[in-house]
Amino acid sequence: MLTTLISNPLFIGLIILAIITIILLVMVVSMQSKLKKFLVHIDAKNIGDSLTHITEEVKVLQNFEKEMTVYLASVENRLRKSVRSVHTVRFNPFHGTGGGGNQSFATAFLNEQGDGVVLSSLYSREHVSIYSKPIKSYGSEHELSTEEKEAIDSARDGLKQ
To answer: What gap in Å lies between CA 46 and CA 35, rounded to an integer?
Structure first.
């Protein structure tokens, strides 16, 4: 009976058709899983839905990039105006008379353009004096002491690092 079935062309055709059907079914399942990986959005039913979702996401990212560019430009502008270098020089204004030691100081606070302030303190046993002088482009319209100039120069060198 088995030999009769094997010799029957209809049965052989049916077997070949079943094998082809199984192969095609495996290929369809494989293609379906690949398509699921390709579809991005949860509700995407086809590639068009997926591409629409991707296009919307790209637009959101482009808007975010524009906002970040504007924000970073404002941050960089504020950063240029902020104090970027500080240097202190300690000294004895009375040169060996013992009237205060090295407790006096000059401290320069500068931004990238060399603008800022220099604070000076002169200490003696009787009193303490504190001075503030505005700095514009590493200089001042007020006369600067040697220690104040040294503090400004050192702060300028700190900006180069």
So the answer is: 8
Residue 61 to residue 37: CA distance in whole angstroms: 22
Q: Is the overall model pTM greater than 0.85, yes or no?
A: no
Collapsing DSSP to helix, strand or coil, 134 comes out as strand
Cα 120–Cα 122–Cα 123 angle in degrees, nearest 5: 140
When the pLDDT of each residue in the chain is averaged and rounded to a whole number, the result is: 87
Cβ 122 vs Cβ 129: under 8 Å: yes
Contacts of 121 (CB under 8 A, 6+ apart): 103, 104, 105, 106, 128, 129, 130, 131
How far apart are alpha carbons 40 and 56 in whole angstroms?
Answer: 12
Between CA 77 and CA 61 the distance in angstroms is 24
Is the pLDDT at 1 greater than 70? The verdict is no
Work out the pLDDT band at 12, boundaries 50, 70, 90: confident
- Reading phi first (left if > 0) and then psi (alpha if -120 to 50, else beta), residue 37 is in alpha
Rounded to 5 degrees, what are φ and ψ at 121? -130, 130
Give the 3-state secondary structure of residue 143: coil
